[in-house]
Every structure is written in structure tokens, then in C-alpha cells.
């Protein structure tokens, strides 16, 4: 008689079937105890009377499943996970095996193979916490979530840098991403420019309370802003207002969870793929991003509830350049110059029209080119700043080229100038001339 090992549940089934076969329990009572139908209990009782306890375990126990992964393929996957894709998590490794090597296996199989090969996943997942869920926007372009992530994107031996990203709330599509040395206004303007060139102008932007987007409440508005009833805005806030984009504050990281989760995924997948392609600089990473984002969106993007998009057409390129720039109001002096930082810059040099005491706006484009605007009229261009731009005029002025040297002073002629008239003869006064008798102060008594 063969021996069989039964689990606790199978031992309970054996006990119920024994009582049923001895007549101590009805089929309906046995079905209630086992959670089976009466018809299935009768089939189990018939097999139990014929085969005994060996009929209780499933018939496939101990058999190799027909879809089992062969040992050669398991060794190949384990070798790739241990050598080439050690920094990839289980889901990322499953996608990479299918795209690059044509190996189509499930995430569970990848997890089991890694566990048997003692190659754990680098991603440590924390248990989820309860949060009130906010439904997605119904249309693409209704709201984009913006944020930046400071991380060692090129490996632990390289310094950290910022990755700026914009995620559509309705579809989860990464509309744009950009590597920068720091999280600054110019970087977010470049990011917004990418979004508008690829998709259009969104209706709103959802971000944290970074000083790039909102002015600190401790700063008081100027007199002009108080008279006009306007709140002080940042350079990015001014550009968003001109484009008709609403800025929305997020008061917790969980409120903009899609973009936060995006950076968690990028710290798994993007770092691993850049290490595979030996990318170690910001320029190389920005060139690699478009292809990576295309694959990412194809894998993770979802369809919106309404197919019609809410993105608006972007303005022309010249008009967009006048909006996505740094703007500084200045007053023109009487000599057609303005004060910019610690420099005096000429405005409309050689113009026959006087712009003295006029209020103009200095535009600093994202590539550093200065231009002077009076309303919608460009008065001319100025010098170009070199280096990273900031919103501080003094820092921009230090990056401008030095002013041209003054013109050289003309040398006096070597030949003496010719007199037009003949030189008059020298006249010597006589000794008794009144001019010689003139004295300052009181007269001397001997002369009276």
C-alpha cells in the first residue's frame, strides 16, 4: 500500500469522507463542512471508496507542469539577472528580457528564478498607506503634474543632479523630462517649452510650493502691484499667466502622487538603462531621454476617459520666446542707457526718437540673449550672457561680455599752429606809468 502525505485541509477532508462512508453524516452535511457541492462530494466519496486516502490529493501533485521553464532557459535568465541586469527590478527585467532577448516569461517566474539564484531585486517596496484617492482628470491636458528629483542619476561615484518631469494626470503620459544641475526657473521654462512643442498648452499645472512657482508670503507686494490689485508673481508664474495656465499648489507629496511615483520608477529603470549605455553626463542623458520616454509611455500610459484632448495650440515660436524668458522692467535714462545689475547698457543707440524716462522691459531669452522692449516694439538687442542663467540681474550682468574700450584720444598735431594775424609788438610800460604806481592796502606816509 502506497503512502501519501496529506495537508491539514486534506486531513479534514479525509475525516469528513470517513464519517460519510460510515453513515455518520449525510452528503449535504459533508458538503457544508467542506464547502463543496453535494454532487462533488458524492464524486469524492466514490473515489475514496475505490482508492482510499490516495484519492484525496490532487492528481497533478508531483507531476511537472507542461508549461514549466526548462533548466537551460532558467540558467540563462539567472545569468542575465546576475551580470547584465543586476540593477533592474523584477518588472523592468521582465520587460527587458522580452524586448532585447525575446524571452517572454512572467514577473512571478522572474522573481522565483532570482530567489533561487540568490539575486534579490534592488527595489525595496514599503507597505502602502491609506490615502484618499483623487480621480484622474477626464481629458488629457487638463492638468500636468510638475516636480524635480535630486538624485545620483549617473551612479554613486558621480555628483547628484536634478531631473525635472511633467506627467499628464489623465493618462500618466510623461510629456517632457529634462536633466539640470539644479531645480531652477530656467529649467522649468525649458520643460514647459518641450511640453508645448510636443503636445500644446495645458489648462493647469499642479506643483509643490517651490519658490520657482509661487512667491513667498513674507514678501510684500510693490506699490504698483498694490494699486493694480495684483499679487506678486515669479518669473514662471508670470509666463504661465500670459499663456493662460492656472498654477495649483500641492500641500503634500502624496497630493501629486503620479509624478512622485514616476521618479521612483525612473530611479529603477532609467538609472539601470543609463548605466547599461554608459551615460555619465547631463548632455548624454538629455539625448537619451526621448527614446526612453517613448518606450516608457508605450508601456505605462493609459487612455483618458474622454478621447478629446484639452491641450490648446501653442503660440508662434517668436511669441513663445517672448513669454518663456526672464523679464526685468527698467527706466531709460536721459543718455539712453539703463541700469542692469552693476552695468550701464545702451538702449536704442543712435535713435532719433527720444526714449528718455520711458518704462521698458529687458527680455533675457533662455539662451542668454538680451533685448529691449517698449510694449510690443523691440528697440534692439543687447549683449549675450554666457553661463547658467538665474533670476538675479546682478548675476546675469556678471556673465555679460566686458564693455568695449573707449575710443583713443586724438594726439595733438606735431607742427605748431599758424597764427592768422601777425604778432603784436611787445609794449613795455614807462617807469612813471600809473600801472607801476598802483599799490594794494593803505598808502605809505612817505608817499602822501
- State the order of secondary-structure elements, H for helix, E for strand: HHHHHHEEEHEHHEHHHEEEEEEHH
The CATH homologous superfamily name of the largest domain equals Ribonuclease H-like superfamily/Ribonuclease H
Number of E-state strands:
11
CATH topology of the largest domain: Nucleotidyltransferase, domain 5
Indicate the proportion of strand residues: 5-15%
Morphology call: elongated
* Count of runs of 4 or more consecutive helical residues: 14
| Sheet of most strands | 5 strands, mixed
Low-confidence stretches: none
Backbone structural class: alpha+beta
Number of domains: 4
Mean pLDDT: 85
* Proportion in helices: 25-40%
Architecture of the largest domain, according to CATH?
2-Layer Sandwich
> What is the top-level CATH class of the largest domain?
Alpha Beta
The separation of the N and C termini measures: 169 Å
